[in-house]
Amino acid sequence: MHPFPEVWRAWPDRSGQGHTPPVSLIPPIAAVLVGVAFVVAGGSKLAARASWPAQARGLGAPAWTVPLVPWVELGIGASLIVQLLRVPMAVAAALLLFVFSALIVRKLAAGEHPPCACFGAWSVRPIGWGHVGRNAALLVLAAVATL
């Protein structure tokens, strides 16, 4: 038995057997995925304590933003997970991801590869184009969450 039978019952698949998920569930699911990434990122930055601010400054983050970023990520992420103001929070997530990506691209273009500060102590590898790709994937999910 499916855990949400009342949701699935209304959408039979083409064969009439079984059920397919409604397209309307895709944006909320995308929002939850982005939200989880943001909550993990914000929480791990706070857990990293003094090492994360140093890494963030190494990436070129303005000093005044460094103490705010983890809390902004936690707020946006939690809002996306519980679907509170999903569309504006998805837009905010996309804007933040764009800024993070711009900082990474700027460093890569200058030939610099400081440690990634994306997930606090979990991200000690030097930045690379894979980080930009990950952010691009999250940007796509954030865009889908606005639908």
Features:
147 residues; mainly alpha; 6 helices; globular
Structure description:
- This protein has 147 residues and is an all-alpha fold.
- Helix 2 packs across helix 6.
- The chain is globular.
- It starts with a helix and ends with a helix.
- The N terminus is likely disordered.
Overall average pLDDT: 85
| Secondary structure: helix percent | 55-70%
List SSEs in N-to-C order. Answer: HHHHHH
User: Are there runs of 5+ residues with pLDDT below 50, and where?
Assistant: 1-8
- Compute the number of strand runs: 0
What is the CA-atom radius of gyration, in angstroms? 18 Å
Question: Major beta sheet, specifics?
Answer: none
Separation, N- and C-terminal Cα atoms: 30 Å
Strand-residue fraction? under 5%
* Helix/sheet category: mainly alpha
Q: Count every helix, treating DSSP H or I runs of 4 or more residues as helices.
A: 6
Morphology call: globular
Helix-strand layout with pairing:
Blueprint: H1 5-8, H2 26-48, H3 51-59, H4 69-81, H5 86-109, H6 129-145
Helix pairs in contact: 2-4, 2-6, 4-5, 5-6
Offer a concise description of the structure.
The protein is an all-alpha fold and 147 residues long. It is built from six helices and no strands.
